[in-house]
Amino acid sequence: MKNDNIKNQYRINEQIRSREVRIVGDNGSTVVPTRQALDMARDQGVDLVEISPNANPPVCRLIDYSKFLYQQKKRAKEMKAKQVKVEVKEIRFGPQTDEHDYQFKLKHAKEFLEDGNKVRAYVFFRGRSILFKEQGEVLLLRFANDLEEYGKVEHMPSLEGKKMFLYLAPKKAGVAKKSQQALDREKKATEQKEAVKEAKKSQSAEEELDVEIPANGGLFANAKISADAKKKLNITD
User: Fold this and answer.
1) Cβ(217)–Cβ(233) under 8 Å?
2) What is the pLDDT of residue 183?
3) CB 113 within 8 A of CB 171
4) CA dist list (Å): 18 to 56, 69, 73, 201, 214
5) For residue 175, what are the β-bridge partners?
6) Is residue 123 a contact partner of residue 163, using CB atoms and an 8 Å limit?
7) Rounded-to-integer distance, Cα 212 and Cα 193, Å
8) What's the pLDDT at 228?
């Protein structure tokens, strides 16, 4: 059925009714009377295929029709393979989910969003647990906040029957936007590392200079050395 649709999509040879056509190829394009284009196709042993009927004049190619259909099918297959299929993954909570279970589900939600899938998280209220709906809302809002680097909220928590839903969509694939808090934490960590490095360098320098020098200065006796340098080298006048 799909192959028939592709075949019916294009007019070829005598099916082309316009007075003139634009023939495109590797060497550019040219406008010629349709009868002349048909003669050219016949001389080359190929078909005149109309690929853009709405253009003025219609655009055609001189190509073997079977080869042309094969190229179109292959291109359609490649386009379909490139399409990203977005799935909706569900994460279920109870109104009193413990921390271990929460972190476990948070980890999976991050993976789902990183893979380009949407996440539908919900809290299920069984029986009288509906009394804890505020607690369920707080849990879902925390969940959304913990995932802000990976996804954006499409629908805030809302109660539907015995379930409260939260919908999250992935941010751009491969580009997890970091929150300002995360950026500040990284900046602080970097500054701390640099401070530790500088402290180690200073300590190493002092240890290298911590040598015993004779009271009279030895080799430095007649040298002009600043007071600070003498202090570091333990030189006494």
Assistant:
1) no
2) 64
3) yes
4) 10, 22, 26, 83, 108
5) none
6) yes
7) 33
8) 54
* Integer Cα distance of 180 and 7 in angstroms: 55
C-alpha 143/C-alpha 101 separation (Å) is 12
Longest CA pairwise span in the chain (Å):
113
Say if strands 28-33 and 163-170 run parallel, antiparallel, or are unpaired.
unpaired
Asked if residues 45 and 66 have their Cβ atoms less than 8 Å apart, the reply is: no
Mean pLDDT of the chain: 79
Residue type, 85: K
- If you write DSSP's letter for every residue of the chain in order, what string do you get? -HHHHHHHH-EEGGG--SSEEEEEETTEEEEEEHHHHHHHHHHHT-EEEEEETTSSSPEEEEE-HHHHHHHHHHHHHHHHHHS----EEEEEE-TT--HHHHHHHHHHHHHHHHTT-EEEEEEE--GGGGGGHHHHHHHHHHHHHHTTTTEEEEEEEEEETTEEEEEEEE-STT--PPPHHHHHHHHHHHHHHHHHHHHHHHHHHHHHH-----TT-GGGTTS---HHHHHHTT---
- Tokens at 231, concatenated: 């202090």
Closest CA to 168 of 53, 176, 212: 176
Confidence of residue 176 (pLDDT cuts 50, 70, 90): very low
122: pLDDT confidence band, cut at 50, 70 and 90?
A: very high
- The pairing of beta strand 59-63 with beta strand 47-52: antiparallel
For the four alpha carbons of 132, 138, 144 and 147, in that order, the dihedral sign comes to negative
What is the dihedral angle through the alpha carbons of 209, 214, 215, 218, rounded to the nearest 10 degrees?
-100
